[in-house]
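Support reply, case 0932

Customer input (verbatim):
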Amino acid sequence: MLKDLVLAIDTASVRGSLALLQGERLLAEYTLESPASYLNRLLPGIDRLFLDIQRQPTEIKAVIVSSGPGNYTGLRIGMSTAKGLALGLDCPVVAIPTLETLAANFPFTPFPICPVLDAKKNEVYAAFYRCKQGFPEILGDYLLVTPAALADRITGPTILTGPGLERYGPWWQSRLGRHAVLAPPELRHLRASALGRLGLFRLEHEQPCFLDQLTPFYLRPAEAELHRRPIN
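Our regenerated output:
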């Protein structure tokens, strides 16, 4: 995969991202704002990427996509697009957890990293990572907890990152003091270039996903699922 063209798609949050990579070389990266526009802007955005670097979509040799947790609609659109491209181009697809991609913005740091997404209902999606050899390794489980419950798990200096800091960052800073190392704003968002790097690592060391097993990782059921009545 070192010389092959790889497309990375992230639509897990309000700020989406697309990237084209050739091995470790980033060829292009775009940002897409607002999940409400993903349905209309994702495929044109991909076309624009290829137009700008004068390459063809048929050159894609792998698709990397965010698996979640995150915005329900965005995850479904991104996953469906990745599946369609992989099926049409007969290429592998790799799904990477959203929180892992956020942690990848901090390679080689000695501190634990805690990416956070706002899950609404006064809860957050979170996990703890260590970045060994530049790649995140999860410590424990994925979490769906209140901001206070997450703070109770932090007992030493920890890098807090992710879009969830926009709402809860100041509160954690007040509650945790020097133990809360808030990431700078430019490193709090998902980047498809980081997603692609993680996906390439997976392709070199693991098997790609089977398309029929590729589903979004919500961590919490969507509202439609919660209110669905069983059929008698």
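We compared this against your earlier run and they match. Two observations from our side: The beta strands are 5-10, 15-22, 25-33, 60-68, 93-97, 113-118, 124-132, 135-145, 158-161, 180-182. The chain has two domains: 5-97+191-226, 99-187. Please reopen the case if you see a mismatch on your end.
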